[in-house]
Amino acid sequence: MLVCVSANHRSAGFSLLERLTGASVTDLENLIRETPGIDGGVVLSTCNRFEIYLDLTNAHAFDHFLPALARTVGVAEDDLRAHIRVHGDRDVPEYLFAVSSGLESVAIGEDEIAGQVRRSLTDARKAQLTTSDLEKLFQSAATTSKGVKSRTHLAGAGRSLVSLALDLARSQAIDWQRANVVLVGTGAYAGATLKALETRGVRKVGVYSPSGRAHTFAERYASVDPIEEGRLAERLSSADLVVTCSATDKYVLDYDLVRNSRIAPGSTASQLIIDLGMPRNVDPLVGKIAGVDLLDIETLRMHAPLEDLGTTELARCIVARAAKEFQDDRREQRAAAAIAKFRSSVTEQVETESARLTNDETTSEALRKLGNALLHEPTLRIKQLAREGRAAEAEHALELLFGIRVELEAGELSQEVAPARPSRPEALEGCPHAQTLADRVGP
């Protein structure tokens, strides 16, 4: 069964998210690998989201996993339970599809999250932690996010946390074409930041990498120049804007570094620092330095624009239908084992009777056709029951009538953690697929 453990900007405060996203991914992967009853898992950790998607062989595995997770991330178990949301098997697809489509982001419709979801699957593959169900889940999420992007205007404005931050920077009256910018970080988010800066007309960008990858980044993006380790303070003093988005778990810009750069001869009159790092890249005390304005993720949350309700509901409709199709396919696959055993049993009986009654190939072929004909309707009915979520009934009937036993699902999660918010039937009102989704949402 699939389970998602989620802490995000809706359920957890900034300080807790900072601790969770700062946890070692290697340690989390080892935890997944070493917990009995867990076949695989994918870790999705971004600046506003900490999530682990698990494939469990039984529900009891989760009861052991959660306390171990609290120890691994260094958070009290009670605090963790109070601020996470757990999505059970039925709700995981719709939730991940919504996440990948930008519907659960601070900036609704952001572009970056789809790439982050894809990379999390790639990382899980490298760690050999994926399973067939997880592969299909994340691949379907990628397909769904593309569908949302192509069929709605959700991402039409290119909204993202980066864009939101730069839009807020307008209050600083920055002349983009003349602005001197320092970019800290060289990952995917740095690339998105550079693109957003160039769109606004920025021409002077220096990139600094705490891990020493500035030159490699500059080779990919010819418009930037690398900042050497010993020249960061010098470049900071002349910067109008500093954007940090590094994955480091330490402050890149501490109080002393920024203060000394501000009092250096020739420093700019004012400076805006945008900290998009999680954990923080900038010491919060930097915001108290004269002439410096510090804008961080916690502040950005308060300025996130309201949803465009019409566009968002259409996107959620697309997501809901994709989730239903995914679950229908999974249910049919679950029934495949029962169908295979049923067909094998009938075929074996046909072959036994054929061998006993005659050696005539014509008669044997007729018996096989009769067997296939008898299998046809029950097979279709089992598939239909599976799509309706009634596979257990079909399996029970096969066991009762034919003695064919098929292992049932893993079971249900305990309710000791805060459940994820349920799907809202009203979200599907006016949706062109509402009739096909009625059974998904339920009363």
TrEMBL record:
Q: Which GO terms describe its biological process?
A: protoporphyrinogen IX biosynthetic process from glutamate
Catalytic activity line of the entry: (S)-4-amino-5-oxopentanoate + tRNA(Glu) + NADP(+) = L-glutamyl-tRNA(Glu) + NADPH + H(+)
* UniProt keyword Oxidoreductase present: yes
Example GO molecular function term? glutamyl-tRNA reductase activity
Q: Which residues form the Quinate/shikimate 5-dehydrogenase/glutamyl-tRNA reductase domain?
A: 168-301
Cite the record's note on assembly. Homodimer.
What is the protein named? Glutamyl-tRNA reductase
Q: Which organism is it from?
A: Gulosibacter macacae
Q: Which gene encodes it?
A: hemA
